[in-house]
Design brief:
Length: 540
């Protein structure tokens, strides 16, 4: 018994000695903690306290740490100045920023700290007022958003990041444990981690400022900003980019993205690839424009290969798939309505990469579950669009507003003797809605709200027309009395002659060619209907 007791005392003494050594070796002597997001902060502060670190804090964080029995000193007792202006001014004081910014290897800096009775701060743990969650709350007001713009927090983060050699800055709870592990192991935080945390901190404040800038811009008349910032958060790194030798990642925009692809919820299947996401975006943006009928869009290599409206979801899928069963193989399939069991069974008879819909019935999910590699996504159907379309070029960005101009029947101009029937006009509108999502030069052949041939991405419009016609014939469609949409004007009458020779009844196109009169005359010669939109819909 006595031996065991002695051993116990020895173990206890060793433990105490180890803890004392850790405290003595810890380079971090003083930490300032001020956080809105308090996830993990109690454990972090407790670990710092065990290492002998003095903790100073402000307002709500000070009270929170006190309530959790962690010794903490209020900032006001250090600055000798109370928080004022409803908390707008708390840490903007030389005894805080001097303590953060002083270089420990500069004797002049250290002398000035002594002269002004300033004690250095070695670690700053700050995250900012919840501006993003405030502006994302549809019930919040402009005044509430303004009050949630943090001033002191970004200043402390920037100060400590600038002085990262001497001050550790932590802005994300995911980094708490890494910092504690290094302090426990060596008594210090390695310079590579300090630099990593500083870079992360500057990115944090840059993201925060860009949120504010973009929010305020929405309150002003539309204009392109002189300096553009695009706040986005990393969601995941991808297996690779367009090709296996490229690396890629998926970032999500800040703000309300409900109804946009980035708000998807994946409920089944393999990890999404770069190409999956780009094709899925085209499919979703195309299908969500249809609201009065069940719709199905199948996309392959950035182009819709087939689109159809149907009596129900299954009917829309069967029509879409039959429109080009070869290209649809391995495609991305999007629906604008709930997928039921019958549709799911039809889907599983073919190979597809991704299925997207607003919802699925339980028995539909049970069917899809038998195809575990199929990526199944849920997306809320909402009429929301990105503010800008962005394209990267060498050394810069091209920014434009979206091509989402609604086709207005009152603005359509019939330029032929023949007039469109109501059913013909409906098919023309549908064909145009698809052509908007097909790479230029785009020709879309439609019959009864079903694409029967699509020609995409050719250097000449006549080649796109030939491809669309060949596809229709390849899959046994009766082209007679079908309609065609062209995303830009016909430069010559050859397109009209080819379409008419195969029985196409009507064409919708922008007009605007110097050969327009020749094209219109050719349409009249063939007894075709030609309708002009007055604007083109290029997609590059």
């Amino acid at each position: 018994m006595l031996v065991m007791f002695a051993e116990s005392i020895l173990v206890c003494c060793v433990c105490v000695k180890v803890e004392m050594i850790k405290i003595m070796n810890c380079r971090i002597k003083r930490a300032l903690i001020s956080v809105s997001d308090k996830h993990g902060i109690v454990e972090f502060a407790s670990s710092l306290h065990k290492l002998g670190v003095e903790i100073i804090s402000t307002g709500g964080t000070y009270k929170f740490l006190q309530q959790n029995s962690i010794p903490v000193v209020e900032v006001a007792s250090i600055t000798g100045f109370p928080e004022i202006l409803d908390g707008r001014v708390k840490t903007l004081h030389p005894k805080i920023h001097g303590a953060i910014l002083a270089r420990r290897d500069d004797k002049n800096h250290l002398a000035q700290l002594d002269d002004h009775d300033i004690v250095g701060i070695d670690l700053v743990c700050v995250n900012l007022y919840p501006f993003e969650s405030t502006i994302n709350n549809p019930e919040s007001s402009f005044a509430e958003a303004i009050e949630n713009i943090d001033i002191g927090g970004p200043a402390m983060i920037r100060s400590s990041s600038k002085n990262y050699h001497d001050v550790v800055v932590v802005v994300n709870s995911h980094d708490y444990q890494n910092v504690i592990d290094q302090l426990n192991a060596s008594g210090d935080v390695a310079i590579d981690l300090r630099l990593y945390l500083a870079r992360k901190a500057f990115a944090h404040t840059a993201y925060y400022d860009s949120l504010i800038s973009n929010y305020l811009a929405k309150k002003l008349p539309f204009e392109f900003p002189e300096q553009l910032t695009i706040p986005a958060q990393l969601v995941q790194t991808l297996r690779y980019g367009e090709n296996s030798h490229q690396i890629a990642a998926f970032y999500k925009d800040s703000g309300n993205i409900d109804g946009l692809l980035a708000s998807f919820k994946q409920i089944q299947g393999k990890e999404l690839s770069y190409n999956n996401l780009t094709d899925a975006d085209t499919a979703w943006e195309c299908v969500k424009q249809y609201t009065s009928s069940a719709a199905c869009v199948i996309v392959k290599h950035a182009n819709p290969c087939s689109v159809a409206l149907g009596k129900n979801v299954k009917d829309s899928y069967l029509k879409a798939f039959s429109g080009d069963p070869v290209s649809s193989f391995g495609g991305i399939i999007a629906f604008n309505a709930a997928v039921d069991k019958d549709t799911a069974e039809a889907l599983t008879e073919q190979f597809c990469e991704v299925v997207i819909a607003p919802s699925y019935t339980e028995d539909a999910l049970a069917v899809l579950y038998k195809k575990p590699n199929v990526r199944v996504l849920i997306l809320h159907l909402a009429k929301q669009y990105n503010a800008f379309d962005v394209k990267r070029i060498g050394g810069g960005l091209l920014i434009q507003t979206l091509e989402n101009k609604a086709l207005d029947q009152d603005e359509l101009k019939v330029v032929t003797k023949e007039q469109p029937t109501l059913s013909m006009l409906s098919d023309l509108e549908f064909a145009w809605s698809v052509a908007r999502f097909v790479k230029s030069n785009a020709i879309v052949l439609v019959k009864n709200h079903q694409t029967i041939g699509i020609g995409a991405g050719q250097m000449s419009r006549i080649d796109s027309t030939k491809i669309a016609m060949n596809k229709a014939q390849q899959f046994g469609f009766e082209v007679k009395d079908s309609v065609v949409a062209s995303d830009a004007f016909f430069p010559f009458r050859d397109n009209v002659d080819l379409l008419a020779s195969n029985g196409v009844a009507a064409v919708i196109q922008p007009g605007g060619s110097i050969k327009d009169n020749d094209v219109f005359s050719a349409s009249d010669e063939h007894g075709m209907v030609m309708v002009l939109t007055g604007y083109r819909a290029f997609r590059h």
